[in-house]
Automatic annotation (TrEMBL), chains A, B:
Domain MoaB/Mog stretches: 4-171
Family, per entry: Belongs to the CinA family.
Annotated Gene3D superfamilies: 3.30.70.2860, CinA-like, MoaB/Mog-like domain
Signal peptide as annotated in the record: none
Pfam families to which the protein is assigned, alphabetical: CinA, CinA_KH, MoCF_biosynth
HAMAP family recorded: CinA_B
Lineage: Bacteria, Pseudomonadati, Thermodesulfobacteriota, Desulfuromonadia, Geobacterales
InterPro entries named among the record's database cross-references: CinA, CinA-like_C, CinA_C, CinA_KH, Competence-induced_CinA, MoaB/Mog-like_dom_sf, MoaB/Mog_dom
Protein name per the record: CinA-like protein
Species in which this protein is naturally found: Geotalea uraniireducens
């Protein structure tokens, strides 16, 4: 089944609203084995919408349109649908009854402007909207099923799940199955990954591979298509095993689990507690750790010691050490980690100190110089890094590197 | 100038990635007076991209395409551009020299696969990419300017600002002037803002007003269009003054300055130092403070005291107080703020403690209960909030509320 999406709204073309509906619908359709071939956005313009509907209907078997079903003058999708399909616009009695009921249940008076939302092309079938005033509807045009949903994300999603997906499932070609698998890699470039995975699809018909950079991570996305879910499962299992074989040391998470969630899961599984001491990341690592609900079970404290005085007072970093080695040094990173561990009484303590820039670098320690240290009961290790990029990039890659240190250490426990 | 956008990538049509690039580019083009007429998304498919380029070029004077310029096999945008414009694919010497330089500056070996990113249609002009390996480029086809940018948002935005917008400004109709002005509001709903600004455009021909929610902030965007920049400037000055008159107490930043940057500017201007003590925000406020380069001049330290023991050990919060009042209380928030100020020796210290959820709430202190406290030489004040939404939303609105506390306090100094 060839599918297309049409997003309608001036706010999308003015850049005032990010179109999340398209991604949500595409993802759900993909989940039931229907791949979207193209997605188009037009403004609140009757001619433009009608033309888009007609041309998309000519090349696809399913078109889902969102937006332009509200009660105000700039909502013209129903009129455009009537024009594109050569139908009259009529007052839809069932839609009107539903809308009156919608207001009655809420004990509210229906505004006359809302009746406009029941003017639909003749002979359409309703797509019920349990949570809003806009009536969804569907019609056949040029052998293409055109489905119209409101642009309000919450209303749209519920109508998609309750009515549209069952409808699509009933119409699609049953025999084809599509599944995906995702692996998240760190510490290796997209170019290198592509090179190491050369030939992965050879002798694996139905397998597709795509790469997506989410700096500093790279996602490898495997897509399997075939007859029957078992065969597709085997295809993806084989391909994922091959990726692990070729790039295993760089895989930090699989199947939608982020590195943050993988680290959180390991902390829970291993029953180990954590303290952090951050200089150049300024709280970013603590923020990412505590983004995960339930992190209070293992995260005891974080010290954001931006000033040297704070390193001395909070973490007992010796002043002489700071004077002799500088705040950005392996020795200070280790003193910070040990100090944080002592202060928190935690199993592990991780510390970072570095120069995120754009100022503060010199020839010996340029911008991007970062030391990471990890202390545990047995002692403390540290390593120097030279990262590049903007302040934001250096802070982000430092945080991900720190999370990967924790992940690797937790795996050994 | 009629403009269109083309987004390229299987991940967009599979719903794995939300297309934020389209909104960013549309918004920036609108800011220089160019309205996008349509936006199209296609997958990583050479034929589909070439066909889309050709048909968009026939109906527009400007097409900006993003995505598909990476080093791997699924990146086929340059090949499609060559096909659509009837050109050969050639190794672009300048692009190659730039790329070699890119790797040399970072002290890294260039992977052979990256050379593929310099295979571009013949006779194109480069759009330099200072932060990544993908070469942007532009070419004329059917009297339409086609511009190709990578899909990585950070790289794309920088190229858009440094090269594309000046290029567009030089080509568009010179006589009409379009300027925008932006005011950022906090603590007031979009509906309330709309009601209070009723009639703003009356008697102000050429003025447009749009609203954009960037939770928990709302941006009011004024757009002035007219003949001559002085007249447009006056129009916008008058409208902005009216917005300040009607909603002044809620304006936290103007003209692209975020609330984070406004706070940073005030700290520098007032020469005041800061310490933070965070519980439920877990480092998020420190992260936002240190996102700004130069924050080490005023930010001394942050204590992320997630566990009760950390509050006691780091901030000298009395154990009896924690037992009597609970960690989420006005008394503990004030003890945290005073403790952080004492520890850092700072002028100001801000503390937050609360329940971000989804677990941990009860009838008396439901999820979303947050206490903020601010200590200075004269004493300490605190306030209780009841925020709603997801864990992420509660943490974000808490951080913005805290930044707004700092902003208001600094303005009184």
């Amino acid at each position: 089944m060839k599918a297309a999406l049409l997003s309608i709204g001036d706010e999308l073309l003015l850049g005032e609203t990010v179109d999340t509906n398209a991604a949500v619908i595409a993802g759900r359709l993909y989940g039931v084995g229907v791949a979207v071939r193209r997605q188009l956005t037009v403004g609140d313009d009757e001619e433009a919408i009608a033309e888009a509907l007609d041309s998309l209907a000519a090349e696809h078997q399913l078109v889902i349109a969102t937006g332009g079903l509200g009660p105000t003058d700039d909502d013209v999708t129903a009129r455009a649908a009537a024009q594109a399909s050569g139908r009259r616009l009529v007052l839809h009695e069932e839609a009107l009854a539903r809308l009156q009921d919608f207001f009655a249940r809420r004990g509210r008076e229906m505004h006359p402007a809302n009746e406009r939302q029941c003017l639909l092309p003749a002979r359409v079938t309703l797509v019920p909207n349990p949570t809003g005033t806009a009536s969804g509807f569907q019609l056949l045009h040029r052998d293409c099923l055109l489905i119209f949903l409101p642009g309000v994300p919450g209303e749209m999603v519920r109508m998609l799940e309750e009515t549209v997906l069952p409808l699509v499932l009933a119409r699609r070609d049953e025999s084809r199955v599509v599944r995906t698998r995702q692996l998240t890699l760190f510490g290796v470039s997209e170019a290198e990954i592509g090179a190491r995975l050369t030939g992965l699809t050879v002798a694996r018909p139905g397998l597709g591979v795509a790469y997506c950079v989410d700096y500093p991570l790279v996602q490898v996305r495997l897509r399997g298509e075939g007859d029957g879910s078992e065969a597709v499962q085997r295809l993806l299992d084989g391909a994922a095993a091959e990726v692990r074989e070729r790039l295993g040391e760089h895989i930090v998470a699989e199947d939608g689990e982020s590195i943050d969630l993988a680290v959180a899961r390991l902390f829970r599984e291993k029953r180990v507690s954590l303290a952090l001491a951050e200089s150049c990341t300024g709280g970013l690592i603590a923020k990412r750790i505590t983004d995960v609900a339930g992190s209070s079970a293992y995260f005891l404290l974080g010290a954001v010691t931006y000033a040297n005085g704070a390193k001395v007072r909070l973490l007992d970093v010796p002043e002489e050490l700071l004077a002799a080695k500088g705040a950005v040094s392996a020795e200070v990173a280790m003193a910070m980690a040990k100090g944080a561990r002592r202060l928190a009484g935690s199993d592990l303590a991780l510390a970072v100190t570095g120069i995120a820039g754009p100022e503060g670098g010199d020839a010996v320690k340029p911008v991007g110089t970062v030391f990471i240290a990890l202390a545990d009961r047995a002692g403390c290790t540290s390593k120097e890094y030279r990262f590049s990029g903007s302040r934001d990039q250096i802070r982000t890659v430092t945080a991900v590197t720190a999370l990967d240190w924790l992940r690797r250490r937790l795996l050994t426990l």
